[in-house]
Amino acid sequence: xxxxxxxxxxxxxxxxxxxxxxxxxxxxxxxxxxRIHEAESQGYCNKQMPLLAKDPRQTVVILGSGWxxxxxxxxxxxxxxxxxxxxxxxxxxxxPLLASTAVGTLETRVVIESVRDKGMGWRKLSDVLDDxxxxxxxxxxxxxxxxxxxxxxxxxxxxxxxxxxNMKDKMVTVSPRIPDVDANQTFDIKYDKLAxxxxxxxxxxxxxxxxxxxxxxxxxxxxxxxxxxxxERFEAANLFLMSQERKRELLHFxxxxxxxxxxxxxxxxxxxxxxxxQHYYPKLMPYVQITIFDVAKSILGTFDRSLSEYAEKHFRRxxxxxxxxxxxxxxxxxxxxxxxxxxxxxxxxxxLLVWSTGLAPNPFVAGCDVVVKDKRNNIVTDxxxxxYAKHSNSDAVLNKDVFALGDCAQIEDGYLPATAQVASxxxxxxxxxxxxxxxxxxxxxxxxxxFNNRGIMAYIGGWRAIVQGxxxxxxxxxxxxxxxxxxxxxxxxxxxxxxxxxxxxTNWLFxxxxxRF
Length: 517
Prior knowledge:
Layout lengths: L6 E7 L8 E8 L5 E2 L7 E5 L9 E6 L3 H9 L5 E7 L3 E3 L4 H5 L9 E3 L5 H13 L3 H15 L4 E12 L4 E6 L10 E4 L2 E4 L3 E3 L7 H4 L6 H18 L6 H7 L1 E5 L3 H21 L8 E6 L10 H13 L2 E5 L2 E5 L3 E5 L5 E5 L2 E4 L3 E3 L1 H5 L11 E3 L4 E6 L2 E11 L4 E3 L8 H21 L15 E6 L2 E6 L2 E5 H14 L3 H17 L7
Helix pairs in contact: 1-11, 6-7
């Protein structure tokens, strides 16, 4: 195999005339076809590092580090493909456990995986075992293998967002998203294969005040903010200055959206209050209220009616209010203006508002005019996940070097739900086909993508859950065991497979940490 790729470094210098200070170095790779748009007058300059042999592998640029993007680069064979991940964040989020992190059942670090850390956990564990067992010969062989692998990086991260695609020249224009780096200094990355997996944003329906005052649950940053707000509300309500009415307002936790995310957060919040907060704030328990608002006639609409009714009965037994058929009209810093079940205007005061009402198109996809999209602004693909490229003077043409997958894409004439399960299966399918194509050098027949529905599940609190799959329906504590077992097995790294059950056990034994920091 050849040596390291060529690299090009750009330094951002300070303004001190006597001694310029470099605040950040951004590494660019010449073999990826990086073209930088910059101005000398703004303090940017080019510095070239020693030139080495060019990388012979095909370059796959992956836009996004979510379920689709992360699973795609994890399963691509590094012998044939060099992956460049373009994402504003340097990690993958295991979203099914975000609700647990928002209430302190799990810590945020155990639900994220570093984009750069591809297989390093297993390698380090192997090195430790070799040292313990004194297997020096095996350790030396593994070191030689790692030296060879490190000469050609398996995955490279560019913390940026894509702003444009040039399919003719096979270029993606990106804008950096790093502190102290001007976002207007865009640059191009050349690709051989391009995978668009940028995901979606939270749907707000353009309701006034939602973006400014509501909390979303899409990232670990959101979970940390929610956790801090919950603890702040209890501390504020505990002050002797507060009236009874004000305490009820502070401790009214509202969730808009009765899907799995909203329901699981309500369940986790109830567990936090019932298991821990009542011991620290026993006098505040009469003022605590959790309410779920949904525009539909029932919550958990993707489940069979028998399971959603079971969840509703369970919630009502635990004093979690469910208000269906409600439309939110406006959100302020401390209240909701709604159209209630009787189509009457009503104002509801809250201490915390979590918004979970579905998905909205990613701005990059919404503004991308070089691919065909459906009425929902999803990128349309064929059964092999290839996109349809638009041309000014002709009909749309299938582009076999550009793919779209995840929440931002839909297969033509075959709508699939925008879930982690679908995104993950598409990514594994595409990586398998690309690996096969590289090994066979284009020979062999490509198989179309087929979705294998493995069921859906939701936690409803009190060590109970509901599961709906091909094997039928399961509810109660048996379903809770299936829920925990499934998410434990789906966690990626060996480190998190160890830490997740440890946190589950320690929090059950000692309680959740309610410190604010």
